[in-house]
């Protein structure tokens, strides 16, 4: 927690105000990433154009390797499926999101 706080530019006490452990921080990141995927779908649904054009935009957004959000999302999914050290809550959220 000390290293995380230092990297973020916060005191360790400040980080503990919001998170009890590194596992809780990671689980929060997974929740945020899972929610971001849903927000992308909501955004695509509101775009102008035909349904096919909106689906095309969404597909490109999820597959675009230059998309920072998608790179982070893929990394989180990979980590939750490949590491034994991942908190069970984070694994459950990632599994539900993958469907």
TrEMBL record:
A GO molecular-function descriptor: DNA binding
Pfam families assigned to the protein according to its UniProt record, in alphabetical order: TetR_N (PF00440)
Name of the featured protein: TetR family transcriptional regulator
Highest taxon of source: Bacteria
Residue ranges of every copy of the HTH tetR-type domain listed in the record: 1-37
UniProt keyword annotation of DNA-binding present: yes
Source organism per UniProt: Paenibacillus nanensis
SUPFAM superfamilies from the UniProt entry: Homeodomain-like
Keyword Chaperone set for record: no
Coiled-coil regions listed: none
Keywords: DNA-binding
